[in-house]
Amino acid sequence: MEVTARIAQLRAEIERHNYRYYVLDDPLIPDVEYDKLFRELQTLETQHPELLSTDSPTQRVGGKPLKSFAEVQHRTPMLSLNNAFNEDEVRAFDMRIREALGMAEVEYAVEPKFDGLAVTLSYRDGVFVQGATRGDGSTGEDVTENLRTVRVIPLRLGEPVADVEVRGEVLMFKRDFSRLNDEQRARGEKEFANPRNAAAGSLRQLDSRITASRHLSFFAYGIGLCRGADLPGQHDREMELLRRWGVPVAQQCRVVRGLDGLLGYYNEIGAQRAALPFDIDGVVYKVNDIAQQQQLGFVSRAPRFAVAHKFPAEEAMTTLLDIEVQVGRTGALTPVARLAPVFVGGVTVTNATLHNEDEIRRKDVRIGDTVVVRRAGDVIPEVARVVAERRPADAREFVMPASCPVCGSHVARQEDESVWRCTGGLFCPAQRKQALRHFASRRAMNIDGLGDKLVEQLVDAHIVNTPADLYKLQLLKLITLERMGEKSALNLLAAIELSKHTTLARFIFALGIRNVGESTAKDLAQHFGSLDNLLAADADSLQQVRDVGPVVAQSMADFLAETHNRDVIKQLREAGVYWAEHQAQPVTSLPFSGKTFVLTGTLAALTREQAKEKLEALGAKVSGSVSNKTDYVVAGVEAGSKLDKARELGVAVLDEQQFLALLESI
Ligand code: IVH
Fold first, then answer.
1. 169 lines ligand 1 (CB under 6 A)
2. What gap in Å lies between CA 182 and CA 190, rounded to an integer?
3. Does residue 65 lie within any of the structural domains?
């Protein structure tokens, strides 16, 4: 084949693989094959420098640093959006639109509001020729060389459209952000505050080789100007067209009708927000019909046909009043920030975790500082960083107490751990309370009605010291407690009675042994079949259990070596806690025995919990992280770093269809 033709063929093929890999997360060929194509192209281009061109995928690595960015006049202005902060404002928006259009119900295109920075990409005859930031909306900066390094941005469109501007947002995925910050930290360089800052900092680099190393991403949300292609009359179909040309469009983009459709979308995306692989700060509603958009027009710099419905801010600034130390179930001392109340992520926050002593040092948090508090989804609020410029002269450093603030026992820190622990064990009321909470929790003994407050009262009044004491509770004692009526006391006793019938796995889990989570408890129950077998096990026989390594075996052995732990177990059995015991299952008896699965992303046909149950019923182990012991990774929609890891390690990946087919084949 003629060299020019082969080069063109290689470029097209490599870009197609880039699209499959970076945009669809669904590569067609193994990395080595891709590398071969890439090297062949590089070789041909070196041999024929006259054939080198800027739209070649080999040019995505960045080039010579610039002195400054040139200015770019946008041919169509880059507008901003008006915001809506609550339902009433959305209702008013929908009403204005309906009135202006004289319609009872309007069709809207709905999209995430990406938290990155706006850019415009110009293509001539289908080739990427220029990219610019938004700037003030009419003049931006020429960041063409940097955008060329963004793998998901096509250097050539699927069709040779004469002249088109693609509008969208450059952003950094959360996993790339945390990787970047790990690297920055390791190099002793400044970390970025959030993915948006990291994306902006990476795009505005005069040295495009730095941008190339930063793993930026991009989603399109509109078309600026277009000549040489017939655009469809609806926004969603324009997005469809962009997708066909190879431009990334987020899969959360949708079409809905009326106010209910808008609010339903807001809630749906809001619920997914924390799990999405990239940051969003709201959703955007746009009248879908382009003729209607034109009829509605613009007010100053924002379209009348669109609005951004913002989520409550996930970060807010407040004062750190004090740092207190909480003691957890395993004795871990967690420093907790007491804050001046601040509204963040939709709720008022007064406490936030500081994780551990090392984190406090790393972030250089001091009492009296102004801090940024972050609350994402259901995650516990945390102190993200200090606003150094606002540090008062009398800010105090935090000192970890030398003894447990609850029971006074001394605290110890293992060399390889970042946490300090109280050595008091169940002597420490804080640990006792947590142990009881865990024992009663839904996935353990499932004692309905034994809430935190009640545990607190029972321990403080010395009525309950160990889990076994719960089964000795008496009505007359219970009703002496504050706010405890006869009816709730009876309900509680009934719930405790019900909890007696359990499973061996739940019982083991409920004991709250360090490093023995739900899945290890299931493995132990399955392996030993009876509690007596487990109690008789030594560290060696414990390590025969699937996925039990020296650490878990040691924790088990430590726990069983304590006579008071064995006493509690004995008392629980004497109190009537029971389960069906069975012969230890030979590990090979079920279809997936010995196989480890990891579930990632969202499955359409069943929840992750259901998938897990099905797999476990077939003997599989379902693990939370991918390692070279993993046999299969089941990747649903929006699968993230676990999928990357699987690919890295060469673990078999099943998509939902393949997974369902596998289940059915049994
Ligand atoms: S449309 C004519 N759609 O939000 C309307 N903008 O506050 C132009 N943004 O500068 C914007 N996600 O950077 C649109 N799905 C989305 C968006 C989005 C994020 C940004 C964009 C814009 C800013 C306006």
1. yes
2. 10
3. no
Domains identified in the chain, total number: 5
CB 239 less than 6 A from any atom of ligand 1: no
For residues 160 and 291, membership in a common domain is answered with: yes
Q: Which residues contact 515 (CB under 8 A, 6 or more apart)?
A: 551, 552, 555
- CB distance 290 to ligand 1 below 6 Å: no
To test ligand 1's pocket by mutation, which of 82, 114, 266 has the most ligand atoms within 8 angstroms of CB? 114
Ligand 1 centre to CA of 80 (Å) is 6
What's the token pair of residue 589?
Answer: 């008896």
80 C-beta closer than 6 A to ligand 1: yes
Taking residues 567-571, what's their average pLDDT? 92
Is residue 583 pLDDT above 60, yes or no? no
pLDDT value for 585: 52
Retrieve residue 635's tokens.
């990747």
CA distance 584 to 536: 14
The chain-wide mean pLDDT, for the chain, equals 90
Query: Which residues constitute the domain of residue 345?
Result: 315-394
pLDDT bin (cut points 50, 70, 90) of residue 377 is low
Together in a domain, 265 and 347: no
The answer to whether residues 110 and 241 belong to one domain is: yes
Q: Is the pTM of this model over 0.85?
A: no
pLDDT in tens, 491-534: 999 899 999 999 999 999 999 998 899 989 999 998 999 999 99
Checking 593-596 for CB contacts under 8 A at 24+ apart, the result is 593/619, 593/620, 594/546, 594/619, 595/619, 595/620, 595/621, 595/631, 595/632, 596/547, 596/620, 596/621, 596/622, 596/623, 596/629, 596/630, 596/631, 596/632
Asked which of 310, 344, 379 is the last residue of a domain, the reply is: 310
Residues 274 and 332 in one domain: no
Kindly state the percentage of the chain with pLDDT values over 90.
60
**CA 118 to centroid of ligand 1, rounded, Å:** 7
Pocket residue to mutate for ligand 1, from 110, 113, 119, 266, most atoms within 8 A of Cβ: 113
CATH (domain of 80): 3.30.470.30
Instruction: Specify if 136 maps to a domain.
Output: yes
380 and 454 both lie in a single domain: no
Q: Which of 544, 570, 586 is the last residue of a domain?
A: 586
Query: How many angstroms separate the alpha carbon of residue 304 from the centre of ligand 1?
Result: 13
Per-residue pLDDT of 167-222, as tens digits, reads: 999 999 999 999 999 999 899 888 888 899 999 999 999 999 999 999 999 999 99
249 lines ligand 1 (CB under 6 A): no
Same domain, 539 and 638: no
- The whole-number pLDDT of residue 589 equals 64
Rg of the chain taking only CA atoms, in angstroms: 30
Does residue 494 form part of some domain? Answer: yes
Q: Is the Cβ atom of 305 under 6 angstroms away from ligand 1? A: no
Instruction: Tell me which of 134, 221, 298 to substitute to probe ligand 1's pocket, judged by most ligand atoms within 8 Å of the beta carbon.
Output: 221
324 and 248 belong to one structural domain = no
